[in-house]
Amino acid sequence: MTDVTLITGDGIGPEIAEATRRCIDATGADINWDVVEAGVEVMERLGTPLPDETIESIKKTGVALKAPITTPVGKGYRSINVHLRQTLDLYACLRPCKSYEGVRSRYSDIDLVIVRENTEDLYAGIEFQKGKDDTAEIIDWLNKHSSRKISSDSGISIKPISVKATERIVGFAFDYARKMGRKKITSVHKANIMKFSDGLWLEVSREVAKKYPDIEFEDRIVDNMCMQLIQKPELYDVLVLPNLYGDIISDLCAGLVGGLGMAPGGNIGEKIAIFEATHGSAPKYKGQNKVNPTALILSGVLMLRHIGKKAEADKLENAVAAVIAEGKSVTYDMKPDRDDPTAVGTSQMADAIIEKMGSS
Ligand code: NAD
User: Fold this and answer.
1) 136: left (phi over 0), alpha (psi -120 to 50) or beta
2) What is the pLDDT along the chain (360 residues), one digit of tens a residue?
3) CA–CA separation, 294 and 285 (whole Å)
4) Centre of ligand 1 from the C-alpha of residue 212, in Å
5) Is 282 in the pocket of ligand 1 (CB under 6 A)?
6) Three-state secondary structure call for residue 63
7) Which atom of ligand 1 is found nearest the CA of 284?
């Protein structure tokens, strides 16, 4: 038996978490679930959106499947999702984007993996608000030491990119490529403009690549990368990106394969990994048994592979693909017409996936 933490989340979280848990159990993967809470609902009860027992469980099991969590507005909390990634040092965000037959999309043959650095860059949270004393001090200092002048009415966000974090994430991308039989890594940057941050990223990427002569390496400037992904996505395999570009390109690639309902993900560190859908808690659909559980189920597939249960992962992925290809027992968003009365609910789509595994 493998211990796995299940964070049920809020909004649509509990419904898709339950659908996913049933699908994973039906693979025979023999998981011992430690079910814990996080999000706005538990905050109303316990006064914190992230109880200590939730963090303790993740630290103990080392692997979690997490349903979406609403970011409380105006209560002084930053995103719980960002908080989890930072406190547990989940430095790699893994987002495979793959076409499945039967999903409405302009593209049919996409098979890309996005590896996004999760800890640095403009998302490090080092920011200075316009008009504050600290900000004025920094602006004064910069204006003394730089030929370019910053206006005193500016706000400032800092973009740190380090050798250590870049080595770690690019190494992760290469190790992942090796493990999964992938052929090529593309490192994405804007080194022509930001020479000391993105330039360093590119230089370190090239150094790390030398240690993996069996895997092809190339780099692309981020704006060109966007165009190439729209025009010739088949040329790319695994992309490794700093935090901000990684965030944007992940959504672009989710769009190539049919949108957020199809986009699984994992946040991975040295000792701990949390798998979750890219989409959020869609509060307006809460409790309606309506939304698509696919992204969280496919995150479960990634989780199964991560804990070494490859056969069970393949079985579940094949069953999801078969149900989507048939197009019968799928949620409203996967039907050609969103008001199609034959659309099924979240739990009925899970039932169809479980039935497929039984008949395979
Ligand atoms: P969202 O992804 O929750 O929903 C946007 C829209 O996408 C929904 O209204 C719905 O139309 C559609 N959608 C999303 N998931 C779907 C699904 N499984 N099936 C069918 N349709 C689906 O984004 P939002 O409304 O911007 O965010 C809601 C909350 O979720 C916010 O508080 C946000 O901070 C949070 N959020 C959490 C995570 C996470 O837990 N990792 C990620 C993103 C957003």
Assistant:
1) alpha
2) 999 999 999 999 999 999 999 999 999 999 999 999 998 888 888 888 899 999 999 999 999 999 999 987 765 666 788 888 888 999 999 999 999 999 988 999 999 999 999 999 998 889 999 999 999 999 999 999 999 999 999 999 999 999 999 999 999 999 999 999 999 999 999 999 999 999 999 999 999 999 999 999 999 999 999 999 999 999 999 999 999 999 999 999 999 998 888 899 999 999 999 999 999 999 999 999 999 999 999 999 999 999 999 999 999 999 999 999 999 999 999 998 889 999 999 999 999 999 999 876
3) 16
4) 38
5) yes
6) strand
7) 9
CA atoms lying within 13 Å on the CB side of residue 314: 6
User: Cα–Cα distance between 244 and 261 in angstroms, integer?
Assistant: 22
For 111-120+161-256, CATH gives 3.40.50.2300
Tokens 């023999």 correspond to 30
- Known catalytic residues are 123, 190, 223, 247
Instruction: Give me ligand 1 centre to Cα 15, in Å.
Output: 14
Q: Where along the chain do its domains lie?
A: 1-91+262-360, 111-120+161-256, 122-159
Q: Does the beta carbon of 276 lie inside 6 Å of ligand 1?
A: yes
Point out the ligand 1 atom lying closest to the alpha carbon of residue 72. Answer: 32
The two three-digit tokens of residue 224, written as one number: 């060109």
Question: How far are the Cα atoms of 35, 65, 138, 199 from residue 296, in angstroms, in the given order?
Answer: 16, 8, 43, 36
- The residue whose CA is least distant from atom 26 of ligand 1 is 280
Ligand 1 atom 8, closest CA: 282
Superfamily name and number for 1-91+262-360? Isopropylmalate Dehydrogenase (3.40.718.10)
Which protein residue has the closest C-alpha to ligand 1 atom 11?
A: 282
Contact of 39 with 69, CB cutoff 8 Å? yes
Q: Is the CB of 260 under 6 A from ligand 1?
A: yes
Q: What is the pTM of this model?
A: 0.93
Three-state DSSP state, 281:
coil
